[in-house]
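Record format v2
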Amino acid sequence: MEYYSSHISNLIEQLSRLPGIGAKSAQRLAFHIVNMSSEQVRQLADSMLDARNNIQYCKSCCTLTDQEFCPICSDSRRNPRVIMVVENPRDLAAYEKTGKFDGVYHVLHGAISPMLGIGPDDIRLKELMRRLQNNEVDEVIIATNSSLEGETTAMYISKLIKPSGIKVSRIASGVPVGGDLEYIDEVTLLRALEGRVEL
Amino acid sequence: MEYYSSHISNLIEQLSRLPGIGAKSAQRLAFHIVNMSSEQVRQLADSMLDARNNIQYCKSCCTLTDQEFCPICSDSRRNPRVIMVVENPRDLAAYEKTGKFDGVYHVLHGAISPMLGIGPDDIRLKELMRRLQNNEVDEVIIATNSSLEGETTAMYISKLIKPSGIKVSRIASGVPVGGDLEYIDEVTLLRALEGRVEL
């Protein structure tokens, strides 16, 4: 794109690599950014670097956090005997917003997908099984998405845990089929939690 | 949002200030960014700072560029006697992509909008008038958007230039090529009817 300066072309190209940012949005964002104050751009750039460089996986639940253990796992008011398994931190946040779940989480960072070549070893499943070894957990609530991958993952985890005698449940349908947890309203999320059935 | 690390919350907040990025997209982008390699995040952040800090307005057409004069104004193959007036550099890029305009541009960086309190002095209009002073321009093609603001700006510029005897034209508005009549708004349909040309 000869008609833009190389600095802007480069910025547009970098931005268009982000998910959900097409060529047009990248252009729009790039021109917005060059029109921001230097200070604002510096803050935006720093916030990216800060987040990237200070983030780690919680040693217990595997969510992204800036400490060894995340705020939820460190909170003594939370019940560590009930673990809700979610696909990613955004889904964790979605359930936290309901304010009605007082257990802890386990973040898989993905779902099993034979289509995409993502197997059980590619998600944080070993870490979950390790948490269940010491007889300190009463129930595992599987809250993966109700997509094909989410359901496959739920079935797989259920079969893996059942032999140990720990109660395994799945959030109820009520979450629309094919729906992505993070976009679903809180009432539906709560309905699904209350209606969970043992697997 | 206590359930995110402050670094991520901060990044989400920074991202959600960008145009067209809502709370959900900001979350999605933030988690994508913390999952990128350090090197990729560094490149993204640098591209923003580079673009912001190396960009200036072309001394002739006012588009954003990294040199005193933009590549188009510096190109001897372009005809400087025909100036197309656009609202912003994205519109310039849109016409450049057609590859069929060999004149030069003038970028207003906005449009007159009494509603938003944007007057003629708030866009790069003085700079346009200055370019017309030395009898070196034959035609000014006004290619502002066909919105209320764009039309207002076109009328205003037209009245300003006309006394000088320079030809002023306006790009045609009408039904887009490939557009299905039934989905096009009435104002556009009327405009297309009024602007009909004899075959």
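Chain A touches chain B through 58 residues (CB under 8 Å).
The CA atoms of residues 95 and 189 of chain A lie 7 Å apart.
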